[in-house]
Amino acid sequence: MAEITISATDGSGSFFAYVARPKRTPAGAVVVIQEIFGVSDSLKAIADQVADQGFIAVAPDLFWRLEPRVNLSDRTQAEWDKAFALFNAFDQEKGVEDLKATLAAARALPGCNGRAGTMGFCLGGRLAAMMALQSDADCNVSYYGVGLEGLFAEGSTGITRPFLAHIAELDKFVPKSAQGVVLAALAPNPVVEVHVYPGVDHAFARVSGQHWDGRAAAIANGRTAAFLARWLG
Questions:
Q1: CATH numbers and ranges of domains, the chain
Q2: Maximum distance among all alpha carbons in the chain?
């Protein structure tokens, strides 16, 4: 495990990204996109798992313009309050710019085979969907992305590259009505794969999280590993 420094494309500064490398290269790269808790211990654990599956994992610090190196958990109310405050202040379009810079940096890393995708959770799941719409990422994965119904409300997703979405049936932040909009918009697209996980809440795949569900996480992560292997090599 290591860190790299990435320059923002708007010239406003630079930010760090946690990097986990696989045992063998060349390999595809995965930009692992944070939840509202920053580049947390949980996110680093997920990046390590991605590397263990044979990919270069790069997890950028997207809150750096607000507060560098945020590392929160879901265990205390104070951490939740701070996480939501950061989420509400976060400029998502700037976040997408930083993700595009990270994508380019990931492709340029020694050992990368030139292919790179994204994988995000919660806020990161939304940003992964935005990357599917706005970037040249080779593929994108969204775990329980929030606010996707706003991105896909028109019914035509505009997604032309492989996209995988994991939806929690009992997601407290994504009601059934919103899920219906997303499913209706994504289902007709031949490059999109969507799975709904029954009986689980938001963040069912968060390592050590309050709503961790081992069965759903294992199934979702297996689908993700196969998806990434198919499109990133």
A1: 2-232 (3.40.50.1820)
A2: 45
